[in-house]
């Protein structure tokens, strides 16, 4: 009888300690992001930064939330949020209807602006010029979907990350690259020897949002409340001017 009682007490102690451990872990939200997609999300001096990540930090500060960032590939990011590996996904994620089947999104904090990038002197000047060409896209992004639906005769070459796609364009392995305008402009300034050009940009009506696991209404409410606060106090505009100075400011986000 004494052995049974001791075993029961021990089991109860283990359960209590486990509960305390999981509760402590849940105080810190795990954020999945990318390390190589400036100016939205990237690593500088060992810190995950960029417009999206700094905006998320500002939102978290308003709501007393702790964040822990780590990098992954964009193609697997939403699945990792859905499975619970990450609590939040931060990576200029366009809120498409297909993605809404996998995760829930915060209110919009920006809109998708796409670009066609090629080398200087390229005959490609707009989307028609992509027909029959090898075109780099990041797998499962809006750029990927836009290319296949807008220029069905193009030959999409899908990459898991931005660095690999940029290398392909620089080496001539692809003829063009469809990606976010802000990242395309950064490629030009940071790779002068590659002689890259943004040949055309176009704003879409597709909103960006932070992604959370479906049904996580409590976290979603906190993110949306914090977002309203950082828009109202001018933090959103300050960060936008810092990281995305050439991108248009959507109505309702400026001062």
General description of the model:
The protein has about 260 residues and is α/β, with parallel strands linked by helices. The chain has eight helices and 13 strands. It has helices at about 1-25, 50-65, 75-85, 140-150, 160-170, 180-190, 215-230, 235-245; strands at about 30-35, 35, 40-45, 45-50, 65-70, 90, 105, 110-120, 135-140, 155-160, 175-180, 195-210, 210-215. The chain has a five-stranded mixed sheet, with helices on both faces. Strand 9 (about 135-140), helix 4 (about 140-150) and strand 10 form a beta-alpha-beta unit.
Explain the layout of strands and helices.
Elements: H1 2-25, E1 28-33, E2 36-37, E3 41-44, E4 47-49, H2 51-63, E5 66-71, H3 74-83, E6 88-89, E7 103-105, E8 110-119, E9 134-138, H4 142-150, E10 155-159, H5 162-171, E11 176-180, H6 181-190, E12 196-208, E13 211-213, H7 217-232, H8 235-243
Parallel strand pairs: 1-5, 1-6, 9-10, 9-11
Antiparallel strand pairs: 2-3, 3-4, 6-13, 7-13, 8-11, 8-12
Helix pairs in contact: 2-7, 2-8
Brief summary:
With 255 residues, the chain is of the alpha/beta class. Helices cover 40% and strands 26% of the residues. The protein folds into two domains: 2-109 and 209-243, Periplasmic binding protein-like II (D-Maltodextrin-Binding Protein, domain 2), CATH 3.40.190; 112-205, Periplasmic binding protein-like II (D-Maltodextrin-Binding Protein, domain 2), CATH 3.40.190.10.
- Which class of secondary structure composition applies to the elements? alpha/beta
Biggest β-sheet, characterized?
5 strands, mixed
Shape: globular
Number of DSSP strand runs: 13
Write out the strand line-up for the largest beta sheet, numbering strands in chain order.
5-1-6-13-7
Order of helices and strands: HEEEEHEHEEEEHEHEHEEHH
Annotated CATH architecture of the largest domain: 3-Layer(aba) Sandwich
CATH topology value of the largest domain: D-Maltodextrin-Binding Protein, domain 2
> What share of the residues lie within helices?
25-40%
Mean pLDDT comes to 90
Q: How many individual helices? A: 8
Number of self-contained structural domains? 2
Low-confidence stretches: 1-25
State the separation between the terminal residues, measured CA to CA. Answer: 72 Å
